[in-house]
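Thread: quick sanity check before group meeting

JM: Hey all, I'm pulling together slides for Thursday and realized we never actually wrote out the predicted structure for the chain we discussed last week. Dropping the sequence here so it's in one place. If anyone has concerns about the input, flag it before I start.
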Amino acid sequence: MEPIRVLIVDDHALFAEALAARLGREPDLVILPIAADVRRALALVATERPRVLVLDLTLGAESGLDVLEQVRETHPDVRVVVLTATSGLDVLVQAVRGGAVGWLEKTEGADMVARVIRSAARKGGWIPPDVLGEVLRRLRTEEAAPDAGAQLLAELTPREREVLQCMVDGLGRAEIADRLGLSANTVRTHTQNLLAKLDLHSALEAITLAMRAGMRPSHR
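JM (edit): ok, ran it. Output follows.
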């Protein structure tokens, strides 16, 4: 059986190195160089081609959700398992909505982490059984109520909707600025304003809400 290539993304060096050393003793796992930030993570995904990405949600001042968002867009075959000290159903649902197939807290042992990695590589996954029902309920409720998203989008200004459309189109801040003839700082301000109006915290959440409300990538 082909070994599973695993990329650990975590800015806690001691924890990440200890986990890498422990998982490296598993005969079917190949542990790639550790990434401590979003930029390094995306570069290693592109060059090392991991099968499974073990992702912390807190990367210093950055968010692991940004890694999740961009990996889903550029390398949808990569399976993402969240391994984090962050707790709470809201962020768990957010991660699953963004494409994560597994969720583990850092208190779990390495044997469990290895099992979930293997499951993810085989197109499986893992959500703690005690919260799985509530996670599924929330996801179903969101899918059943697209009008709620449409009502929220109606609160945006025309320019904010243009910025959001660019985000749905997969454009970064500089590309949005170029398309709309704005400065990068102005785009950042519009992005912050629309996230505040939608009561969201990341571009991934905004894109998910927009697409659930019927917004689709444009063909320009």
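AS: nice. The two ends are 44 Å apart (CA to CA). The chain has a mean pLDDT of 88.
JM: adding both to the slides.
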